[in-house]
Amino acid sequence: MASQESLPLRRLKEFQPLNRLTDDQLVLLASRAERRSHGPGQRVLERGVRDGLDYFLVTGKVELESVDGRKTVIEAETDKALNPIARLQPRMYEVTAVKPCEFLVVEQDVLNQLLRAAPVAQVEMDSGESHDGGESEEHHLLMEFYAELRSNQLKLPSVPDVAWKVRRMVDRDDTTADQVASAVSADPAMAAKLVRACNSPLYRGFSDVRNVRESVIRLGMRTTRQLVTVFSMREVFKSRHPSLQQEIEKLWRHSREVAALCWVLADHATRLNPEEALLAGLLHDIGVVPILVQAEHHVNLFADDTNLQNAISELRADVGTAVLESWSFPPSFVDAVRHAEDWDYESREPEPQLVDVVIVAQLHAMIGSSQNEGLPSFDEVPAYRRLGNLELNASRSLELLTEARARVDEVQQLLSTR
Fold this sequence. Notes:
By secondary structure, the protein is of the alpha+beta class. The chain has helices at residues 9-12, 23-32, 108-117, 137-150, 161-170, 177-185, 188-198, 212-219, 221-236, 242-269, 274-283, 288-295, 299-302, 305-326, 331-338, 354-366, 382-386, 394-403, 405-416, and strands spanning 2-3, 34-38, 43-45, 53-59, 61-66, 71-75, 93-97, 101-107.
């Protein structure tokens, strides 16, 4: 059922990326948008459809089901409902109403045109002045770049085959260790890394393991799944272009450092699985990879490194979220990528989440680096206060990581293997 009633501007500004638009643009958007209602059990979106529309959940609750049967519930006015529902096209999820739902439905082309003309208040170009009218060539190109992302013209990396197979196998209840070992062994380089990891100081038992099957049994299915994905990520952080590869290598080193800190923080300060935290840390900047690749096609915009860094800052969370959604990763990983540099973010869950660990690890990694300008103090960061099992404060936190330096180095070594 459709309704032409428009939402108040205050409500529209709660959605991303609608919050980038001016009031005048929002009024124009509302006049072109449609309100649609669905009753419980009704199908909202079909998997595989390419309709060129964005659906923003205004009220109610929906269930998303991926091609492998994994289900996610999204409720209106929560963090998960800030962005369009199942926005990648063709649709990767089947969406069904759980409660009576109302959506704001917007044509992507219309929204992209408005975004191209929107002011970018956060971005400062060469002159050091913020743009308020969107008149400059740099601003126009940046909005065009953002529109490419939203209309799925930006090429997203795919999950390496062995990681995809192992993740899907472990998600099934009837999979055996022999089957997982067989899938890993199909990639000899991955098999060698898994055995080497199992015999490293992090996982070593009373005796060394000799093959993949023994490694899977010792590590367990869940840890095996996470480590295989971790090791496969090295392939994603690669480029054939020497100048681009230099930037991606720098990104990989930073991601590796954050991942190692995540492992230690999760192990010492939470009940979270350390390997999941390790993977979340490694993926926290995954959105930067396709941005760097796409930047090759926008030489005028990115000839100046300042413009490139501004674009990365502006787009990394949106692109990273799109990557993990396309890989069918659980919402906890998507949240960690979306809010990795959102120092004010506070999860509504009572227990510490992956996003908390990633934010705190990021802070530690940036201290003393060229990125430390403007960082908040530890006690101002909600995620830091949420890692409460150790009653962390700044001095205790640094003390912990100093004590765990050897463990951080071990994890770094694990991620360094080619």
